[in-house]
Design a protein that fits this description.
By secondary structure, the chain is an alpha+beta fold. The chain has 7 helices and 11 strands. The protein binds a DNA duplex (16 and 16 nucleotides) through helix 6.
DNA sequence: CAGGTAGCCTGTTAGC
DNA sequence: TGCTAACAGGCTACCT
């Protein structure tokens, strides 16, 4: 569920609430979400640390803690990280709670239990990213058009699975891959080797535009996604093709088709995209 | 190496 | 209406 714009919105909504706040303690109800270190060590290391910064890389939300610790949180499909008053009833899928020094709670809830947390030293982040094969963030200013064209253009295979490959560009998921390809007028199954330099440039521009607009609209809520305050996004009404099989293409009016690309649903206007 | 599938889970929806 | 199968925004491991 949460792709780059959603994780960014979680970050911006949580920031004023938890920046500078101390974590008094942690309660873990589902240990398997903690990937490193072990659950006991995780709890002991987190306790009494202040949250000194928030960052994002691709779909990872990074909480910087004092004494140079860093907590990398991945929400996967249905994970939610919500700041909440402690007297509010908990969601039934609450797997972990941070007890904060202001008396509130930061809750991790995840219906499908796919989300993960990794606690590490700040200095281990680069190693973590390289182990995970995490490429440059899709909105990173350092990811120039030329660099993008080089990273994507040098590969083989269909374009859409490559857009979803976090090691090439980090942050794009299925929704935005479909939207980006529609905006760039490129069919998801086009072999990358057949894309012209002009098409790759269009793809880069579409990627930056779609993701930026989605961030401005606080992300897409099709079902489960909520931000750090528990509120849904509002980009879903602006989706051109994703989830719109049978509806008219906003550009040409032809019915939007649905197909499978690399095992994932693609939504395509076969007149506009080729 | 490209491409496909199963698996991790729970919940919702499409179709019979 | 009631049941079952397919599917859902991610990612990894493993297979061909």
């Amino acid at each position: 569920m949460p792709e780059l714009p959603e994780v960014q919105t979680v970050l911006t909504t949580l920031k004023p609430r938890i920046l500078g706040v101390r974590i008094e303690g942690v309660e873990v109800f589902l240990e398997k979400i903690i990937k490193s270190p072990g659950p006991k060590e995780f709890v002991a290391l987190i306790k009494e640390r202040s949250i000194t910064g928030l960052a994002r890389r691709g779909k990872y939300l990074l909480l910087e803690l004092d004494a140079s610790y860093l907590l990398a949180i991945h929400l996967r499909m249905t994970g939610q990280l919500v700041y909440s008053r402690s007297d509010k009833p908990r969601d039934r899928h609450t797997h972990l709670v941070f007890y904060l020094s202001d008396g509130a709670e930061l809750r991790f809830q995840d219906m499908r239990q796919f989300g993960t947390m990794n606690l590490m030293l700040l200095g281990q982040l680069d190693l973590f990213c390289s182990q995970k094969g995490l490429g440059p963030d899709a909105l990173d200013p350092a990811l120039t058009r030329e660099l993008f064209k080089q990273r994507i253009g040098d590969r083989r295979g269909q374009i859409k699975p490559l857009l979803l490959d976090q090691s090439l560009v980090a942050g794009i998921g299925n929704i935005y891959a479909n939207e980006i390809l529609w905006r760039a007028r490129i069919h998801p199954e086009r072999p990358v080797s057949s894309l012209t330099p002009g098409e790759l440039a269009k793809l880069y521009q579409a990627m930056r535009q779609v993701l930026t607009e989605a961030v401005e609209h606080r992300g897409t809520t099709l079902r489960d996604y909520v931000d750090g305050d528990g509120n849904p996004g509002d980009f879903q009404s602006l989706l051109a093709v994703h989830g719109r099989e049978g509806e008219p293409c906003p550009q040409c009016g032809q019915k939007i088709a649905r197909m499978k690309t690399g095992g994932r649903s693609s939504f395509v206007c076969t007149r506009c995209q080729e």
